[in-house]
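dumping the sequnces here before i forget
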Amino acid sequence: MRTPILAANWKMYKTLGEAEAFAGELLAGLGDVSGREVVLCAPYTALDRLRGALAGSPVALAAQDVFYEEQGAYTGAISPLMLTDVGCAYTIIGHSERRQYFGDTDEIVNRKVHAALKHGLKVILAIGESKPQRDAGQAGAVVVAQVRAALAGVSGAQMAELVLAYEPIWAIGTGDTATPADAQQMHATIRATLAELYGQATADAVRIQYGGSVKPDNVDELMAQADIDGALVGGASLKPESFLRIVHFQA
Ligand code: PEP
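..and the predicted 3d for all of it:
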């Protein structure tokens, strides 16, 4: 039985005041979330303030990226050590916007995964194909290659600390969601890859989120799919009422 995991990815949005106000409204409306995991992936600047605002709540704090070194002369970078120090339980790694705008290759993603796990930081590993790749019939091969590259050298035991997020690039921020059936098919492909790498029992235990224009009006259908275990939500996570509806999905 996999615990559904609903994560907000705020991207480069929210000042300190806005982040704090959101946390207050989120906690006020959260109610009973037993049996679900709720995660807030915030900008670095808001993490310390959110740690205080979320203290004692069931909402886990997360970053949106991390560098692979522990410390050193890496101007502008944030290390796994710094993220656990500020109270992060998770970080996203491999988001397509990091790959597109910041040059994160599969090799860099793999180094980041190892660095995070080494420091006790759990990972939401994002993978997904572009529109031209999908149109060329390469979606499955591209995603499987990303999974294999990102997980190179990661042990079966470490997989307990890792969540995958299938995010087709053409569905991110576009309002263009994968159909539940298409998403399910890719999730099953990813799980089959995990089974090849780690065996069926480990593959069955790993949670795979879907991301790409998840909204209050499509989350129920997506979450009803057998291999969709959660959602990574960008735009629809910026308003508390919208994210709360997603957290309280009905499958
Ligand atoms: C994301 O940022 O990971 C994402 C899926 O964005 P959106 O929900 O806006 O498509």
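Strands lie at 5-9, 37-41, 59-63, 90-93, 122-127, 162-166, 208-211, 230-233.
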